[in-house]
Write a structure and sequence with these properties.
With 139 residues, this protein is of the alpha+beta class. The chain is globular, with a radius of gyration of 14 Å. The protein starts with 9 loop residues before the first strand and ends with a helix.
Length: 139
């Protein structure tokens, strides 16, 4: 995904994103040297995690702190995006698509979309395997 318009959101874990480095044009470079691959340029990500806490209102459009199996991350603008069923409460397992705002000391995203995945535990159980599998096949 070099140059031009950003590609589709890339599935990542919080730990992977913590190591990303800011590139040109709002892009981020996700290091993949451990897998013997070149860095992956991305702007939008797909993450999943359990809601730890929600801060309503404010200039940021509300925020939520989430945690996946690899660590915590923060999502801004949670009250300004399509959500389907209400999913902004502690304990819910949600999917978030968002634009990366920062990566260190932990990832911060600006939400584009959120969806409640709590009803099916398979989503949570399989998430890290889905991400691992995807990163094995992305060139």
């Amino acid at each position: 995904m070099a140059g031009g318009a950003p590609g589709p959101p890339v599935k990542v874990l919080a730990a992977q994103l913590r190591g990303a480095v800011r590139g040109d044009g709002g892009m981020w470079q996700l290091a993949r040297a451990e897998a013997g691959r070149a860095p992956l340029c991305l702007r939008a990500v797909w993450m999943q995690g359990t809601v730890l806490e929600v801060e309503r209102g404010g200039a940021r459009g509300g925020s939520a702190r989430l945690h996946d199996d690899s660590g915590p991350f923060t999502v801004l603008g949670v009250e300004e995006v399509p959500k389907g069923r209400p999913c902004l409460s502690a304990g819910k397992y949600v999917m978030v698509m968002g634009l990366v705002r920062s990566c260190s000391p932990e990832p911060v995203l600006r939400a584009i979309k959120m969806t409640d995945l709590s009803e099916n535990p398979v989503h949570k159980d399989m998430w890290s395997l889905e991400v691992e599998d995807l990163h094995r096949v992305i060139p």
